[in-house]
């Protein structure tokens, strides 16, 4: 699977590379939502800058958004930053972010630095909500 998942103190980073299939994104989303630490996540950085091509369609976007709708029932506090470098991927990311099935605060960026800056804006608030320490992710 061309998806590298890296846990970080308050969230996770998914880095997609090469040809990424819709079924791989869907499987990764399902696995993330099923993780025992899912409820502790405060952000997801979804980095598509290494993607060369994809077979993702609007129907697949709807399926991904529906999975995330279900996930948001247990954890609504997640912020998602999607990083893209092509117009095609920007279009797909915006379809996802604007889907009526999608409930996470999501923004699309052209650089990981800008995405991380936006994600970091409220991490202190997330720490205040969990005074015993950082989430175990």
Describe the structure concisely.
The chain contains 5 helices and 5 strands. The protein is of the alpha/beta class.
Features:
5 strands, 5-stranded mixed β-sheet, alpha/beta, about 140 residues, globular
What layout of secondary structure does this protein have?
Elements: E1 3-7, E2 11-20, H1 22-34, E3 43-54, H2 58-72, E4 79-83, H3 87-97, E5 105-109, H4 112-120, H5 123-129
Parallel strand pairs: 2-3, 3-4, 4-5
Antiparallel strand pairs: 1-2
Helix pairs in contact: 1-2, 2-3
Number of DSSP E strands: 5
Which class of secondary structure composition applies to the elements?
A: alpha/beta
**Widest sheet: strand order?**
1-2-3-4-5
- Please compute the radius of gyration using only Cα atoms: 14 Å
Helical region count? 5
**Mean pLDDT across all residues, rounded?**
88
SSE string: EEHEHEHEHH
Helix percentage range:
40-55%
Oligomer: single chain
Uncertain spans: 124-137
Shape: globular
Beta-strand share of residues:
25-35%
Largest sheet: 5 strands, mixed
Q: How far from one another are the termini?
A: 21 Å
């Amino acid at each position: 699977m061309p998806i590298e998942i890296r846990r970080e103190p308050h969230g996770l980073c998914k880095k997609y590379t090469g040809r990424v299939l819709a079924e791989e994104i869907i499987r990764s989303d399902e696995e993330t939502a099923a993780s025992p630490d899912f409820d502790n996540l405060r952000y997801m950085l979804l980095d598509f800058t290494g993607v060369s091509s994809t077979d993702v369609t609007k129907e697949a976007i709807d399926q991904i958004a529906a999975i995330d709708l279900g996930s948001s029932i247990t954890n609504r506090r997640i912020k998602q930053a999607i990083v893209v470098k092509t117009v095609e991927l920007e279009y797909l990311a915006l379809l996802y972010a604007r889907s009526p099935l999608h409930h996470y605060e999501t923004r699309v960026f052209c650089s990981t630095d800008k995405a991380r800056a936006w994600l970091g804006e409220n991490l202190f608030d997330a720490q205040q909500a969990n005074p015993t320490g950082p989430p175990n992710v």
